[in-house]
Each structure stands twice: as C-alpha cells, then as structure tokens.
Amino acid sequence: MTTTHEVSTRELAELVEAGKIERVLIEYAYNLDMNRPDDLVELFTEDCYVAYGPNFGAEGRAAYRETLDGIGTFFTATSHHVSNMVVDFSDDLMSAKVRSVLYAWHRYSKEGKADGYFFGQYHDDFVRDDEHGWRFSRRELRASGVVDFHVKKQIPIGRS
Predict the structure, then answer these.
(1) Which of 22, 64, 102, 119 is an S-S bond match for 58, by CB 3.0 to 4.6 Å?
(2) What is the residue-level pLDDT of the chain in tens, covering all 160 positions?
(3) What does pTM read for this prediction?
(4) Which run of H or E residues covers position 56?
C-alpha cells in the first residue's frame, strides 16, 4: 500500500530556511579555514555569545573578534568539517536551535607541536532578520574527544 503525504507550506519554509542556516555553518568553517576573521564575525549578531571551552569565549561581536586575532599566526592551516545538522525552528521561523557534528584538524605554527584534532558538536542559536538573514546569536563547542588540541578544557557533549 502506498501512502502520499502532501507537503505543507510550513514544511517547505523549514526546508528552505534550514538550507540557509546550513550555508551559514559552511561559511563559518570556510572563513575560519581561510583565515578571514572579519568575514567570520559578520556571521554573528552584535550581542552574540561564543564558548569554545568553559573559560574560553566571548560576549559580543567586538569581543569575539578579539579572540580571533591570533588565528593567522597561531595556525598555519585548519580544516573544519561540519555534518549531521539538526534544526529546530521557533513557531514564527525567526529563530532556531541547531546541533551539528564537527571534526577539525589544526596545524600549529609552533615548531615541533603535533597537529591537533577535535571531535565534537556545535550547539547554536540562530536568529533571522530581514537585513542580515540568519546569524549566530550563540555558539557553543562541545567535545567528544581531542588529540593534542590547544584548548585544554572542553565543554562535554553530555553523553549519558
């Protein structure tokens, strides 16, 4: 027996908006890997909150930009791979909670330092407005595991 499902206007809207959010996630990884901190911070709201560890992050876009000052000299290369995106929209489609999986490789500038690896998740809050589209209002990096990673304390994924 075959059943059909008519796609609702809401489902179509969510599909389109999820694609736009996915693009922001991809642009984040690209700008980070290409050492473009000014382009990277434009993906965030002015009052954003970013946490890369329990005591490492920033509140506000200006403070976040300051945390990115060293990426050009601290790393010679990075590669961030984001997948397994799950988007939960608010009723009005103006905000969303997003979870994605991250694998990241870091080649450090410091002579003799081993490459660093990060395995984990991003937990993000997004907001949308007519002028900017979707932007991060909150980004939290949570770790499943690390190897020779430069951030010594991580926020755990919360595994049971």
Answers:
(1) 64
(2) 666 788 899 999 999 999 999 999 999 999 999 999 999 999 999 999 999 999 899 999 999 999 999 888 999 999 999 999 999 999 999 999 999 999 999 999 999 999 999 999 999 999 999 999 999 999 999 999 999 999 999 999 999 9
(3) 0.93
(4) strand 56-59
